[in-house]
Amino acid sequence: MIYEDYYIFTPGxxxxxxxxLEVGAKQTPYFRNCEFSDVTYACxxxxxxMVNAPEGSKVIFLTASGTAGMESVVMNLLTKDDNALVVHGxxxxxxxxxxxxxxxxxxxxxxxxxxxxxxxxxxxPKEKHTSLIVNAHETSVGHxxxxxxxxxxxxxxxxxFIVDAISMLVxxxxxxxxxxxxxxxxxxxxxxxxxxxxxxxxxxxxxxxRVQDVKSxxxxxxxxxxxxxxxxxxxxxxxxxxxxxxxxxxxxxxxGGVEQSIKSAKSIAEYxxxxxxxxxxxxxxxxxxxxxxxxxxTDGKSAMDIVNAxxxxxxxxxxxxxxxxxxIIFRVSHMGDMTRAYTDVLIxxxxxxxxxxxx
Length: 359
Ligand SMILES: *Cc1c(COP(=O)(O)O)cnc(C)c1O
Known about the structure:
Blueprint: E1 7-8, H1 18-24, H2 34-50, E2 58-63, H3 66-77, E3 84-88, H4 91-102, E4 107-111, H5 120-123, E5 131-135, E6 137-138, E7 143-144, H6 147-156, E8 160-164, E9 183-187, E10 198-203, H7 205-208, H8 221-228, H9 239-254, H10 257-275, E11 281-283, E12 292-297, H11 303-314, E13 316-317, E14 319-320, E15 330-333, H12 340-354
Helix pairs in contact: 1-9, 2-9, 3-4, 10-12, 11-12
The structure holds pyridoxal-5'-phosphate (PLP).
């Protein structure tokens, strides 16, 4: 299978631009020098701007997948004296519950469905919680929660607010300052449209104060923060992905900044949803991010069969779900280097598959 020949609509890895691919094709440089420190500083500055981080915020660069970002945040910032309210609306929320359990952090498994938590005040269990943890976009089902409502709730109740923004950064708005967010977790392979392997933890000053001594060598934030002062990491970073991140942040700026990038994702998501209205498919949730559309067949077809038909017949990769949802839903990502023309390939494939003429 030659992946270059396929049209990619999976929610990570996503379609990367030629410019970023070219950076990845070059010799990896040595990194313990000023040249590379400048790359790190540029990445930090660009990321902090992108999420409107408060003055004095810092970024930790971990060479690991996104889950390491999630776990390291719980390890370094929460203690046995905390009681975390963990939003659980799908697989990634469940992962935060597992992480808290693994590290003996007291927590409440806050199971939610069919809400964007606009009314979190009413829905949340009444016991006292010290922190709120959420995957802003629950990627397993394509559901977006309201950061605005949760931010107001955490502010009112004096809670520490941890946001996994991995699958909505760059396509949907994240504003740390406006929404009272203490920690943002980002990862390379979703909206940032880079190869997997780099996770970034953005810490507001309120989070920096919370960083504690931790029983881990690799995931010791204090170590990353002191090395970060000179633009370095304690261990070898994903050097090439950092170079790609620097190029990607510059690309986003050049194209009009993150607001423009969000607008563009929104326009493509709306175009896709509008264009498939004639097909026997319906949106799985009303709270969709710009990043992704989750679809349910309405004609009794198996979602998995559609996924397979698109791959085999049209070289179009969308994303199936597993387990009980295998036949019920499939997911279409709008993240990465997307255009209407590229999205048309998928839309046309769906019309052809259903033998319905596209108007
Ligand atoms: C993809 C993703 C992650 C990270 O998954 P990894 O496989 O560890 O990179 C975490 N949270 C969300 C919401 C995601 O979509």
